[in-house]
Amino acid sequence: MQFRLLTEEDWRQFMCWAAQENWRVSFQEQRLLQSLWRPYFFALYKEGVLRGFVSAVAYKESGWIGNLLVPEKERGKGFGSALFDYALQFLQKATPTRVWLTASAAGQPIYERRGFKVIDRIDRWATGGQGGLPAEADAPVADLVALDTVCWGESRSPLINALSDDGSISRAGKSMGLLQPGVDAWQFGPWLSPDRNVVDNRKLLQLVVSRTPPGKDLLVDVLHSSEMELVLRTSGFERRGSNQLMVLSDEPVSLNGVMALASLGSIG
């Protein structure tokens, strides 16, 4: 087996296979994985044939495994396990205190056998944009980076700064989040709320919906523990699916004020 960084042809094949699985790969994630984080995205070849993909993004104290994709015709041959083990070994070279991933029902037992534990559930919520009002930033990027650091327990400034290049920060009270534009869909995340104030978070959701153009889906990958289901439903969102949030760590892990991920499940 050979692991290598993606070529342009590999990337096109990844997007083709992802579409066949009905995956949503955000515009921002595509941009990052083809530029800043290209060294963190791998293709697996055997006997000259492409067998699958995986990403392994490293932060200061943690890592994220995502985009583990093997086409149906290649499943059951050990390629998924090989990709996962390669990504985990790649991240562990930096001795992270924890490694994260989101898991489907089918993948969860595989990750549990490798020591990962379920810490929360990620629910994907969606609604349609209602206005496309000018998305001027309500706060500087430094404020979002600082709050993200408090909520996640580490600085993820490379991720937040990169996503903020095209996005706009919305704020209501102590709650804050990043609205990310896209081609087919927009995304809201990270969404952070240290006090979980219901009134402020309802205002925040209404604000980002009003800043999303009509005809565009607005997606949010929300932690179930945020207890924001009623706020989301009364703001016009509907749930479209769920995955488990899992972590590998020798120490207790807690997320304080994290409402939603910054990505669609693969980079945190």
TrEMBL record:
Keywords: Transferase. It comes from the Bacteria. The keyword Transferase applies. It holds the Pfam family Acetyltransf_1. GO terms for molecular function: acyltransferase activity, transferring groups other than amino-acyl groups. SUPFAM superfamilies: Acyl-CoA N-acyltransferases (Nat) (SSF55729). Residues 1-140 form the N-acetyltransferase domain. PROSITE patterns: GNAT. This is Acetyltransferase (GNAT) domain-containing protein.
